[in-house]
Amino acid sequence: MSELFDAVDALVSSRSPLPPPAERKRLRQAHGLTLDEVAAALQVRRATVSGWEAGKTEPRPPERDAYARMLKQLAQLYPANAPVPSQDTAVPKTPAVPAVPAPSVAEPAKARTKLTADRIPEPVSEDTALRPAAVPHPVATTRPTSRRPPARNAAPVGSPAGGVDARFENGPLAVVDVDADGQVLAYCIGGLVLDVPAKSIAALAEWTLSEGRLGQPKLSGPGKDGDPLLVLTEAALEHYGLPVTLTQEERLAGRIPEGHKVIKQLARAEWKLTKRGFGPWARIYRPAQGSERACVQLCIPSWDALDSRHWANTGQLPPADLARLLGTYASRVMTPRGSTAVTGLELMTALHPPTRASEPDETGKRHSEHNPGSLGKDLVDCAPCEAPDGHPLLADLPRFHHRTPAEVLVEEAYDWARPLTDAECLRPHLVGIDVNMAFAAGANGLTVGLGAPTHVKTPVFDAKLPGAWLVDLSHIDLSRVKVAKDTWVDLDGSLLPSPFTPKGERPEGPAWYATPTVAYAVELGYDVTPVEAYVRHDNGRYLDGWYNRLRDAYLATMADLGVGADLSPEEFLKAMDGYRQRDPQLAIVVSAIKATVKGGIGKLRERPRGEGWKPGQPWRALARPTWRPDIRAAVISRTRINMHRKIVKHAAFTGQYPVAVLSDCAVYASDGPSPLDFLPYRDGKPLPGGFKLGVNPGLVKHEGTQSVLWGEGVREQFNAPELNLARYIKDGTVTAQDTGE
Fold first, then answer.
1. Edge-to-edge strands of the sheet including 429-435?
2. Averaged over 162-170, what is the pLDDT?
3. What region does 304 belong to: left with phi over 0, alpha with psi -120 to 50, or beta?
4. Which residues contact 532 (CB under 8 A, 6 or more apart)?
5. Is the dihedral of CA 32, 35, 37, 42 positive or negative?
6. Per-residue model confidence as pLDDT tens digits over 553-564
């Protein structure tokens, strides 16, 4: 009978009533309890309690009954009309001090006052405002006025999953600088400036983890919090005994020598460095204790940590401006982990961690298990056709063997051009249109392989199955294609690039293609008969979250620059005119976001970079589960197909054909200088399935306009009748000879 009673009690407790999520948080805060304290009392993780309060998950027995009991008692102590403390922790360990307004340039410096933090005055939006941090080391309330950047509106930043976390209330990163008085300062986002007492790099790492309150909450439930990032200025490098610039030898090695005094200081303090050593993106850590990480990342701009191709002059900005720029990127994308390419790849992993905690076993202990929807922690071999030249899978091939399309999968972006027709030569303008975030749009909703490939002979093509297919598409005639269900159109196929090759040439026989390419052949109305395939039955939309985060970051930053998503075509073109000059720093953030997309996709098939590598030997990138050339191929395939589909729709409706296509840019001959002079808008509405002006990923913007005489002139100058004009349409400057080969 007692067993029956226990079963009934368990059944009742499984339905213990709970207040709404917002009320749960209010009650906890009213009693001054932290998430960590509640988690410890209920023997669950902090993130679990956070999820209960956010309404993302609901507690289950036996924790549910205990949690309901706690909330019931708190509700008796704090009725619904009781005041709620403004901070997550009701009783801070150190009282926070209000920020002090900075004097204007004309105002004489006031007497110094001891405070815990000083904030550079800066009107910020509600979601970027930070409370002054409580730091036990005093800092003067006034700084030399020349060190204060002009007050400006900080860009609204998107907060990671979980919102503001008290552990990281000072933001994801800080720029460390030294003022004229020798005082070390940490410039954080939102205009916050902290006094740094650390006298060495080792002490700086200790301060960051113990008092800096820097870092970023994890982006996914099973993931890890982002490590704090410190950006060291040249003054900070000198202060801490590091070289301001690297020697040529150090630059090639990517690090300072192991015997450097700073590295010895770190070793004495029991800090470790990762295998890449102390370089432009150094990581200082101690082995993890349980789930607690102790890791600080350094970024050193004067060591070329911030590639000028993507970050422009970011490294030369004043500390406060540098913190604002990098902080905006970090808050909207993630804290940089290296180059934009590295960060793009790390973002994929942060959103889909390889492992997660299992359900408790019979002893109540949790274990690490595979996280569904991720690439996992184990390496997956690529198919032989997906392997790039020099891969260990190809070690048995003769040294100078050139693989044919029937041996290797070649899915690359477009680089195609053709001579102008006589009718096009009579038009005055060449107008370029560029697809926004084209590779991100190609990743959106794309099903990719998660596990290992399966080799299949004479398969039946399945458009829903990601993989590589050996199939002959040479029979497809672009002169007659299907553009809708049971709707065929006749086109001039000689004026169109083939959708099946990067150079736009018609295939000559069987070749390997990714699933989106073969699916497009079927969409055009033709039968396909694959000879063999490497398919991945374990698959999913792995890149959806990655796309969403980068899309939101891009759209938010463009909106800050005055380019909204709901503008008419005319308003959009006007808003895009000179948008970079409205806030050059935010324009750099846009460039970095774009580079994160392209670089992240490229990293999926990273090639060897020196390191004494020889063909047939493995290289460092192959040790990553995220080395997945099949995913890269699928994204590029879909991006190229998306472009071709729009080109075909446009040609079928208007009779106009592109004269050049380069990746995500297409050039058309036009009677007017604007995209609206050749894009078929009617009553403000674009051609369905064709090109549409707008800021959203997948829509197009005006890339540039040149004259037809300019185009024919540069082709004649370089004796290249098929010079790709899309490469130079933006400003008309031909920087290097391009023979069109």
1. 415-417, 660-662, 665-670, 429-435, 700-707
2. 76
3. left
4. 455, 456, 457, 458, 459, 469, 470
5. positive
6. 999 999 999 999
* Residue 702, H or E segment: strand 700-707
Strands 292-299 and 229-232: parallel
Separation CA 420–CA 425 (nearest Å): 6
Least Cα distance to 419 among 731, 734, 712, 728 occurs for 712
Q: Please confirm whether the linkage preceding 615 is cis (ω < 30° from 0).
A: no
Compute CA 353 distance to the chain's CA centroid, rounded to the nearest angstrom: 15
Q: What is the DSSP string of 600-642?
A: HHHHTTPPP-STT--TTS--GGGGSTT--HHHHHHHHHHHHHH
Cα separation, 287 vs 284, in Å, equals 10
Contact indicator for 227, 297 with CB cutoff of 8 Å: yes
Length, in residues, of the chain: 741
Q: Which two tokens stand for residue 353?
A: 């961690």
Rounded to whole angstroms, the Cα distance separating 82 from 85 reads: 10
Give the pLDDT band (50/70/90) at residue 164.
low
| 41 pLDDT tier (thresholds 50, 70, 90) | confident
Residue 101: is its pLDDT beyond 60? no
Say how many CA atoms lie within 13 Å of 126 toward its Cβ: 0
SS3 for 540?
strand
- Confidence at residue 148, expressed as pLDDT on a 0 to 100 scale: 35
| pTM recorded for the entire structure | 0.79
- pLDDT for position 78: 83
683-714 as b/e, with b when 16 or more CB fall inside 10 Å?
eeebbeebbbbbbebbbbbbbbbbebebbbeb
State the Cα–Cα distance between residues 387 and 120, nearest whole angstrom.
53
Distances (CA, A) of 102 to 98, 141, 188, 403: 13, 8, 16, 66
Contact assessment for residue 212 and residue 173, using Cβ atoms and an 8 Å cutoff: no
